[in-house]
Specification:
Strand content: 15-25%
Radius of gyration: 13 Å
Order of helices and strands: HEE
Distance between the termini: 33 Å
Helix content: 10-25%
Shape: globular
Number of domains: 1
Number of strands: 2
Number of helices: 1
Largest sheet: 2 strands, antiparallel
Length: 74
Amino acid sequence: MRSPLDVHDLIDRLKALPLGLVRLMYVEGGPEATLYLDAGGKQLVRVGSYEAGFNENADNHAHRDLPHVIGVLP
């Protein structure tokens, strides 16, 4: 089951991963958000769902078209 995280908890969890992340930027949450990682031969796709006052459930499992993309290179 997915549960909503506030942005500070999300950033703390991402920085705790063994990825060497130093700075992170929050750009969107809720059902509009999609996290896509492709690194080291592995892919990870996660979509947002819960948004207070708009979509207060965790039923969204489909990503939307991505209007903004942030790419990261080592």
